Amino acid sequence: MCGRYHKGDQLKATVMNILSDKMLIEAFYQAKELKLDKDFIRLIEDELRKRSIMVDK
After folding, report:
1. By CB neighbour count within 10 A (0-12 exposed, 13-18 middle, 19+ buried), where does 25 fall?
2. CA distance 57 to 55
3. H or E element at residue 29
4. How many CA atoms, within 13 angstroms, populate the side-chain half-sphere of residue 4?
5. I need a surface site. Which of 2, 17, 19, 52 has the fewest CB within 10 A?
6. How far apart are CA 32 and CA 20, in angstroms?
7. What angle do CA 53, 43, 14 make, to 5 degrees?
8. CA 39 to chain centre
């Protein structure tokens, strides 16, 4: 990536910034419950860590 953003990265950053902490936590638990793609769950976990939000896994 060499320090450049790809369109997907920009979209991901925009979507994550729109979500409130509460919505992000709810999305995490729903994604886990629905057994969604591990990469998607990892994106949510990364954002939770970035915001210093602790959740039960």
Report:
1. middle
2. 6
3. helix 21-33
4. 4
5. 2
6. 18
7. 90
8. 10
For 5, 34, 38, 50, 51, the CA distances from 18, given in Å and listed in that order, are 18, 22, 22, 14, 13
The rounded distance, in Å, linking the Cα atoms of 1 and 15 is 20
Match 């990364």 to its residue by tokens. Answer: 46
Contact assessment for residue 13 and residue 4, using Cβ atoms and an 8 Å cutoff: no
Radius of gyration of the chain (CA): 12
Which element (helix H / strand E) includes 39? Answer: helix 38-50
Return the pLDDT at 13: 73
Write the pLDDT tens digit of every residue in 25-35: 999 999 999 99
